[in-house]
């Protein structure tokens, strides 16, 4: 049978069947509220995870295993030292490729500061060598020492390396976000198990009568399961919408690197939070079903 | 339909009923009497597997009660209409829905059944009270509603525990007539009652066996009844 039609039938339900269990306003409101609050938190945890994900991506792209060597030397020696550096690099294990930036490239780099007409060749500005390392990377300290010996004007600037711990932190943060979502789901399940358990306990008399007139466990369980699933679904939908609005309203600064201002969803990631109500409903369905069958199994 | 063989039951360590042997044959009509506290209700509860025998065997529709799953028991109960001594309603649902409850829980509430429901509610004289909640009913009204609920499913067996305990003589006779009618349609009927006048009235209409519980045993009652 088609899953969608089954789901629709489950949602529509049998209004008669629903009425056999008396409405329990209090536990109903608690369930809706908790599901809503949990969904709200889950949306934030999701935003956190996805933001950390983007950040880690961006930073590890930027890492891209490049570094630069800056050679500052009198113009007369510059060419020789550049050669020396390139030779050292050629013999260094862990270096994939290296090349000196051309005058044009250097000019482009400096243009924002000095304008387009800078006579690079005539100025004592340092020469830049771009180093691309292999996946294993090179030994920065060893390279530094050999450069000092071969080309005293050369300074290894592995400026992007400081970001490595940040990428690790971002990865950790992403993991933390998913763990939080897992915990939120687990506590939703625990809360709904408790609420369903108390609803079942409060309705023992009803269950007894239903059994006396020939109701099967499945029928009795369904009355409770449907109820709690729909409550969790509606609460979680409200919480998710509220959470998405809250995330959308967070101030966004232009600086993409700043972490807090990057907390949000971008593009298709906006679809992710929509899974929260579904997850909440599925969780409620199983939590109530298991609680119901356990209770019914215990009652003779 | 329902068979007990050397069945025994005790709530604690002391056996309350023992050596109970009885066969409720299809279409039979039984009365069950005995002093208060003798175990009539207990005996009926064994008959619809609300209690399981502590000794011997109880069989419902050829199935050993002790070996039945809860689903099996539910299915058997859909074929057994029970008038409980304490009635057992869902207090939050109106009388009409309580009477229809066996249909509801077995998913059999159709248009035809709804028409039957109307008729039945009229039959037990509860038309004016159909929308009331059970706690608002008098004792006799509750018993009539319980009887209506017991027969709504067109069950094979009807077990009635003091169905006329709280109603006047005229209503007692009406309810009895309903049960006799059902018996004539082939239903197996067992009525537990103190009311000897009711048993005499019934004997004029139907050939009924009268059983007496006493001293933990079940006997066929003498011809004095
Ligand atoms: N759940 C129970 N736990 C312990 N003892 C019980 C229980 N139910 C009934 N009894 C005892 O078992 C005995 C038989 O009870 P039962 O209800 O079967 O009697 P009865 O013949 O139906 O009486 P009545 O005519 O007053 O309805 C009584 O002494 C009663 O106190
Ligand atoms: Mg009794």
Any overview of this molecule?
The complex is a heterodimer of chains A (300) and B (225). Chain A is an alpha+beta fold. Chain A has 2 domains: 14-55 and 171-298, no CATH class; 73-152, no CATH class. Chain A has helices spanning 3-12, 15-19, 25-63, 75-91, 103-114, 140-150, 163-202, 204-212, 217-249, 275-298; strands at residues 66-71, 95-100, 127-133, 154-157. Chain A has a 4-stranded antiparallel sheet, with helices on one face. In chain A, helix 7 (163-202) runs antiparallel to helix 9 and helix 7 packs across helix 10. Chain A is rod-shaped. Chain B has a domain at 88-154. The longest helix of chain B is centred in the last third of the chain and has 16 residues, at 169-184. Chain B contains 8 helices and 10 strands. Chain B has 225 residues and is of the alpha/beta class. In chain B, a hairpin with a 2-residue loop joins strand 9 and strand 10 (217-220). Chain B has a 6-stranded mixed sheet with strand order 6-7-8-3-9-10, sandwiched between helices. Chain B has a 4-stranded antiparallel sheet with strand order 2-1-4-5. Chain B has helices at 40-47, 70-77, 95-99, 101-105, 111-123, 139-151, 169-184, 196-203, and strands spanning 2-9, 17-24, 29-33, 55-60, 63-64, 80-83, 157-161, 188-192, 209-214, 217-220. Chain A binds chain B through residues 14, 16-17, 19-20, 22-23, 206, 208-219, 296, and chain B through 48, 50, 70-71, 74-78, 82, 84, 88-90, 92-93, 97, 101-102, 104-107, 109, 149, 153. The complex binds adenosine-5'-triphosphate and magnesium ion. Residues 11, 16, 34, 36-42, 85 of chain B line the site of adenosine-5'-triphosphate (ATP).
